[in-house]
Amino acid sequence: xxxxxxxxxxxxxxxxxxxxxxxxxxxxxxxxxxxxxxxDYDSEGLLLLTDDGPLAHRxxxxxxxxxxxxxxxxxxxxxxGMLEAxxxxxxxxxxxxxxxxVEALEGEPExxxxxxxxxxxxxxxxxxxxxLTLREGRNRQVRRMTAAVGLPTLRLIRVxxxxxxxxxxxxxxxxxxDATPAAGPSRAADQPAISTRGRRSNPHxxxxxxxxxx
Length: 214
Known about the structure:
This protein is an alpha+beta fold. It folds into two domains: 1-64 and 164-214, Alpha-Beta Plaits; 67-161, Alpha-Beta Plaits. It is built from three helices and 13 strands; from the N terminus they run βββαβαββββαβββββ. The protein has helices at 53-60, 80-88, 141-148, and strands at 2-7, 34-35, 44-50, 68-75, 91-92, 95-96, 101-104, 127-134, 153-161, 164-165, 173-178, 189-190, 194-195. Strands 1, 2, 3, 4, 7, 8, 9, 10, 11, 12 and 13 form an eleven-stranded mixed sheet that branches. Strand 2 (34-35) and strand 3 (44-50) form a beta hairpin. The longest helix has 9 residues, at 80-88. It is globular and about 45 Å long. It starts with a strand and ends in a 19-residue tail after the last strand.
């Protein structure tokens, strides 16, 4: 089984949290699944979950280099030199990055949902949306790459992993894909999306919220 979840902003990619923060248990009520890969607490979008160990390995093994596509709202207007630096592969403190596919978009992407809470803007500085496709997955890589070329990321949304895309899935909702390691998720048949916002009755145990701790 493979689950495609649109992870909301400030949700942990785990099912429990001692500090009472929002977790996957608030949105996925299927037992025995776990996240195949990670998505930062302050990032949004496509997260895959599965109960299949070999499939999870295939999706997360760096040797397979599954392309991951992101929409990044950055501070400032990128020039050709900034975009070309990303395309060549910038060097971070943990080494050089692989080349990245990147394009600057005209205006806001279509069908974009509002973030809660909204992004804080500086009125004197414009913002730009970028579409980036990576083939590696270092910690906070997109944010570090855009910052390295002078374009701090304000909002980050993952919209696709390989052939699997959000395809209109609303934040907090998921759909189930009938996939096997042999067939791979690119051959999977999607099931209808399931709305799970606000659910708390699920088989994943979760400690009580602790007031005053975040």
